[in-house]
Structure formats: structure tokens, C-alpha cells
């Protein structure tokens, strides 16, 4: 399990591009036959990727110093592949198609992930936050998630937000998780930008059309922004003090996940365009 530490925004001003990428960009989450984790000290969020092939993969304790992975945690898992995946939670199996989500609460001891076809493996994106109580395990398919339509073609940010784990959806202790799909020929996400100082956020960019596609992810204090060039199926750790917005060279989808003190989805401080620098 790789560990990433937190950054003071005053120190961030002195970072060059390499330091920014090393601290905030996660490049290789999805490796066939493996499960990989990155542990962020921002609200103790864990981001992971699992690509099971001939053998199932298990959420294991690794370096958490607990008896099992979910002893003091909860987790949200989304299949980002066209290939069917299966997740077994303490003996009960759930089948996930592309963009389906499964929430597993604190206290479940054995969680295994497998692909329906080892030659065409599923890809599971995993996000875990600390938890203080158990909420029921629940699957939510994308066609059951309530869509919210935002943006416009004229602003190049027409998009649909699907909320999976949140106050009015799947219940959790602090984890919030959802997906944003951009309409064809729309490239901007989350613009105008915002910050939410009581919770961090993580982005996973995927569904890019070709190998040359990129997303330019903008971060930093609103009056002093930086950017990171992101490839398909790479993730970004976004501090609470930072904006988190991007524009792509091609169409793309991203999964957003949040953890922190405030559980209200709409608690955000919008940034005026005139204040972005």
C-alpha cells in the first residue's frame, strides 16, 4: 500500500510539476491479476484498483494494523469495465456490470472480487473511508441511480451526475461516491470551480476514447492554480483547499469520491471566474 501525505497550501506554491505529480497523481491503479492501494492522509481515504483474472482478489488488511480491511472502514466499489465482475461479501455474491456500484459497510470480514470471464477481466475502482458504524451492504446499478443534468453545450460542460453513496442514496458514515458523464462534444467538468474545506475529494478519469486522449486537471488555491496532465484510468487526490476541475482533449467520464467532516453534498464554496488565476 503506497502512502501519500498531506500538503500545506503555502508549501504547495513552491512545488514544481514533478513534485505535484508525485504527490497528487495516481498513475497505475489497474494491473491484471493484482489489487493496488494508495493511502492518502487527507481524511484517511484509500483509493484502489483491482483486475482479477484466473484467481479472485481479496480486500485484505495490508498495513492498516487491524484484523481485517473493513474492521474500522467502509468501502464503495464501481466496475469501470465493459466486462462483468462479481463481489462476494461474507458469502453473498453481487454481480456488477459497467458503472454499477456496491457499498460495503464496516464489520464485513471477507470481501472478494472476481471476473465473470478471466480472459476479459472486470476492473474495479475501490474507495474506502473510515467508519464508526455499520450500514447495510447495497448494490446500485447505474440505471437505478437518480441522474442530475447540469451545464450546457454553449459552455462545453453539459453533463449528467449520478449519485450513488450520499445522504439521499446509499447510506454511509462519511464516504460519498458518484459518477459524472459528459455529453458528446463536451469537455469541461466542474466549471465554474468550487472548493469544500471540510472534505477532500478524489477523481478517477476513464472512458477516454484513444491512447492519445488526455485530461488537463486543474488544482490549487483559486487565485494560484496549477495543472496535471492525466491519462486514461488515472486518479487525482484533491486537497480540501484546492479547486478540482478539468478539461479533456476527448470525451471522458470520471468518478468522484469524498470523505471528511461534512456529509452534505451541496456544501461547497463556489469560485467566481474573476477570482481564478
Number of helices: 2
Helical fraction: under 10%
What's the CATH topology name?
Jelly Rolls
Which CATH-level-2 architecture?
Answer: Sandwich
Please give the CATH class.
Mainly Beta
Q: SS-based structural class? A: mainly beta
Number of domains: 1
| DSSP, total strands | 24
H and E order: EHHEEEEEEEEEEEEEEEEEEEEEEE
Unreliable stretches covering 5 or more consecutive residues? none
Radius of gyration: 18 Å
Major sheet description: 7 strands, mixed
Range of strand content: 35-45%
What can you see in these coordinates?
- With 277 residues, this protein is mainly beta.
- The protein has a single domain (2-275), classed as Jelly Rolls.
- It is built from two helices and 24 strands.
- β3 and β4 form a beta hairpin.
- It is globular and about 55 Å long.
- It starts with a strand and ends in a 7-residue tail after the last strand.
Annotate the secondary structure layout.
Elements (H helix, E strand, L loop, with lengths): L1 E3 L4 H4 L4 H8 E2 L8 E6 L5 E5 L6 E2 L14 E7 L5 E5 L2 E5 L4 E4 L6 E5 L8 E7 L7 E3 L6 E4 L8 E7 L10 E7 L5 E2 L4 E2 L3 E8 L8 E7 L2 E7 L3 E5 L6 E4 L4 E8 L8 E2 L7
Parallel strand pairs: 1-3
Antiparallel strand pairs: 2-21, 3-4, 4-11, 5-10, 6-9, 6-11, 7-8, 7-10, 9-12, 13-14, 14-15, 15-23, 16-22, 17-24, 18-21, 18-23, 19-20, 19-22
Amino acid at each position: 500500500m503506497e502512502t501519500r501525505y498531506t500538503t500545506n497550501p503555502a508549501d504547495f506554491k513552491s512545488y514544481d510539476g514533478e513534485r505535484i505529480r508525485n504527490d497528487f497523481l495516481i498513475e497505475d491503479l489497474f494491473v491484471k491479476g493484482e489489487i493496488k492501494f494508495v493511502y492518502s492522509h487527507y481524511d484517511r481515504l484509500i483509493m484502489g484498483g483491482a483486475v482479477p483474472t484466473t484467481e479472485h482478489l481479496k480486500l485484505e488488511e495490508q498495513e492498516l494494523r487491524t484484523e481485517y480491511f473493513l474492521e474500522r472502514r467502509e468501502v464503495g466499489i464501481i466496475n469501470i469495465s465493459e466486462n462483468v465482475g462479481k463481489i462476494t461479501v461474507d458469502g453473498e455474491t453481487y454481480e456488477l456490470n459497467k458503472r454499477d456500484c456496491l457499498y460495503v459497510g464496516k464489520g464485513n470480514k471477507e470481501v472478494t472480487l472476481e471476473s465473470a470471464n478471466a480472459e476479459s477481466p472486470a476492473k474495479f475502482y475501490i474507495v474506502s473511508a473510515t467508519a464508526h458504524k455499520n450500514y447495510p451492504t447495497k448494490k446500485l446499478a447505474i440505471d437505478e441511480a437518480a441522474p442530475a443534468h447540469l451545464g450546457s453545450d454553449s459552455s462545453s460542460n453539459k453533463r449528467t451526475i449520478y449519485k450513488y453513496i450520499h445522504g439521499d442514496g446509499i447510506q454511509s458514515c462519511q464516504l460519498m461516491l458518484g459518477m459524472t458523464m459528459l455529453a458528446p462534444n463536451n469537455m469541461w467538468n466542474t466549471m465554474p470551480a468550487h472548493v469544500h474545506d471540510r472534505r477532500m475529494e478524489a477523481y478517477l478519469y476513464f472512458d477516454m476514447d484513444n491512447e492519445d486522449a488526455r485530461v488537463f486537471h486543474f488544482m490549487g488555491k483559486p487565485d494560484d492554480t496549477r495543472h496535471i496532465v492525466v491519462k486514461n484510468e488515472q486518479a487525482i487526490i484533491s486537497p480540501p483547499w484546492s479547486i478540482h476541475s478539468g478539461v479533456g482533449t476527448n470525451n471522458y467520464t470520471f468518478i468522484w469520491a469524498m470523505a471528511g467532516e461534512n456529509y452534505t453534498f451541496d456544501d461547497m464554496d463556489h469560485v467566481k471566474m474573476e477570482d481564478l488565476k
